[in-house]
Amino acid sequence: MSSPFLTQPPAPSLAEPALTGDLVRPARLTVADLRAWPQHRVEVSFECATSGVQHHRFRGPLLHDVLHEAGPVFDPARRKDRLRFLIAATGADGHHALLTWAEIDPDFAHAPVLLAVGIDDTPLDRAGPQLVLPQDRCGARHISGINAIRVDGRYPSWT
To answer: What is the pLDDT of residues 123-156, one digit of tens each?
Structure first.
């Protein structure tokens, strides 16, 4: 006979990012939700101030794909309107980073920024997704356990 006290239910994810801000379709996502998007793989080497050079393989959807689906409220007829949008990501530990829309937009820098759902062939179901910027030399904008991503376009256009 088995006892229900000998087993514990799986721990819930620590981070389910809330997509908020200037979006038509704000949302709360799980790692499972993020697996529904096309998956990209990147190998990253970055310098960590405390432990030297780190090498990792990440898998997940592009941040651009996820945010584009959420419907940023820039004017699509005005190509440069996107340039005034900022993206702020926050982790469960309070670590945060700021990006510009131009960094991830295919018409501009087209950086392959990921919302990683796996690291080194290990799923991130319990830890939550990670923000990965493969183009960064240091890992300061790498965010673990993302719990919030805010898109902000309140900055006036210069045109």
So the answer is: 999 899 999 999 988 888 999 999 999 999 987 6
**In this structure, are residues 44 and 58 in contact, taking their beta carbons and an 8 Å threshold?**
yes
Distance CA 146, CA 68 (A): 18
Whole-number Å distance between alpha carbons of 42 and 60? 9
d(CA 59, CA 124): 10
Six-digit token pair at 52?
């030297």
Residue 22 CB neighbours (<10 A): 18
Which of 143, 151, 109, 114 shows the shortest CA–CA distance to 127? 143
Yes or no: say if 131 and 142 are a contact pair by the CB < 8 Å rule. yes
What does DSSP assign to residue 140? G
Where residue 66 falls (left for φ over 0; alpha for ψ -120 to 50; beta otherwise) is: alpha
CA distances from 15 to 65, 67, 90 (A): 20, 17, 10
One-letter amino acid identity for 62? L
Position 78: which residue type?
A: R
* CB neighbours of residue 9 within 10 Å: 6
